UniProtKB/TrEMBL annotation:
UniProt name for this protein: Probable GntR-family transcriptional regulator
Example GO molecular function: DNA binding
One Pfam family of this chain: FCD
Domain (HTH gntR-type) ranges: 20-87
Origin organism lineage: Bacteria, Pseudomonadati, Pseudomonadota, Alphaproteobacteria, Rhodobacterales
Length: 240
């Protein structure tokens, strides 16, 4: 897992910002790492290692990890260690159903008041996603995909909705990491759902935007479930 730390941004040194700002920056960086698959299910996160790699003292790291554990994104184990939870098929399907409902609502609201700036930004993000997948740069593809979904929901202008979506992504990001790592990535459809979302935003068609993002979320379900089944099989073999 330590090799993944290189993908985290080194934050300001302790003396350069007030404690509250440092704690927030550390929390946001770890959250981003979870949502974009920097960390894998089963990875152990220690206060000491994270503090060293982020360039801060242990205090803001400890505060961030304890908060993430309280939110269900991490599990606290003995001592100062925290673990990225393993997802069962049942847990994944529950998360997917919630994402379908809530991100669908976010897309519908975003379509009702979409601006040209939002549409242009999402079009650029999608282009970067497709380019990353074409180059088989799956780490970058995960980042761009997460950005598309989060920016779309942010455009719903509902901080509550966005917080819920971010919480779901904190739990989904690590499993998507392994999906991309094995290159078990769903084939891009003839017309990507993201493009349909963008068309719906242009037309301010809330129902079409809702349906398109829901189809996008559901489309990866077979590959993710196959991946979870593969992990379970490998773990069962390892115990024999």
């Amino acid at each position: 897992m330590k090799e993944n730390f290189g993908q985290l941004s080194r934050l300001v040194e302790d003396g350069a910002a007030p404690q509250g700002n440092r704690s927030h920056a550390v929390s946001e960086e770890i959250k981003h790492g979870l949502m974009t698959g920097v960390f894998r299910p089963g990875d152990k996160l220690t206060i000491r290692d994270l503090a060293a790699n982020l360039g801060v003292s242990p205090t803001p790291v400890r505060e961030a990890l304890v908060q993430l554990a309280a939110e269900g994104a991490l599990a606290q184990v003995a001592g100062r260690s925290f673990v990225v939870p393993e997802l069962t098929a049942e847990s994944y399907q529950d998360l997917r159903r919630l994402r379908v409902l809530i991100e669908g609502e976010g897309a519908g609201r975003a379509a009702e008041n979409a601006t040209k700036a939002l549409i242009d930004r999402l079009a650029h993000v999608h282009e970067e996603l497709i380019a990353a997948k074409a180059a088989e740069n799956y780490k970058a593809a995960m980042v761009w995909n997460q950005r598309f979904h989060l920016e779309l929901c942010a455009a719903a202008n509902s901080p509550r909705l966005l917080r819920i979506v971010e919480g779901l992504w904190l739990q989904m990001g690590p499993i998507l990491n392994i999906l991309y790592e094995r290159h078990d990535v769903p084939a891009t459809p003839v017309r990507h759902c993201h493009l349909t979302v963008i068309d719906a935003l242009v037309a301010r068609d809330a129902e079409r935007a809702r349906a398109a993002i829901q189809e996008d979320i559901s489309g990866s379900a077979p590959a993710i479930l196959n991946n979870l089944d593969y992990q379970h099989t490998e773990q069962s073999r390892g115990r024999k």
